[in-house]
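Worked example 2:
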Amino acid sequence: MAVPAYQLRYSARRRTLQLQIKAGQLWVAAPVGMSVRQIEAFIQQKSAWVEQHLSAPLPQVPDWLGLGELPYLGRRLQLKVVTDVLNAWTLEGDTLWLQLSSRNKAVNQRRWMQQLVQQFYASETEFWFNAQAPGLAAAMGLRYQAIQSGDFKRKWGSCNSKGELQFNWRLMMAPPWICTYLLVHELAHLQHMNHSPDFWQLVAAHNADAKKARLWLRQNQHWMQLT
């Protein structure tokens, strides 16, 4: 098999090669300094696996806006659209109201819907994680500085050396126990800015669902987006 097109990312933290198939494309994570020749020899060695996964049909992404419902922390919200004087969103019980301005062009209505839903998720992300973080941080004996939502394509959260945490707004589409795992994960980076055995030991000590949560995210991340 000829080496297929692939996206290559070097990491100083990696010690081994990793292959992943994302959205029908091969991604390679390699240690800094590894040659392209070594990388492509490894891809050839794993050619059966690569071919099998590249030929697999892509999972379908639900059209949440078209369906008129949204996944939200383990339950479903009904999506209702009304015409108003401005673009805004309002959550009432299990209904998310989207107020679309009468001044919007018809061709832009769906874009406005998507933007408002993303704003809703981002707002709820900050509210949820800021509400949950103090208790977990205290239990772990750690201190953080701030929590914000983020719009990441390839990660669920981040933690920097200033103690600032960010969480992907798409996490609001997951059950609460998944969000709890991500919160513990990022808080643990306040003590270990890596994915060393000590880091994973700290995560496991404060979240018994860690392995199950990582598996759930791998299996369900394809539908946690707006199209």
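The longest strand covers residues 75-84. Residues 109-140 form the longest helix (32 residues).
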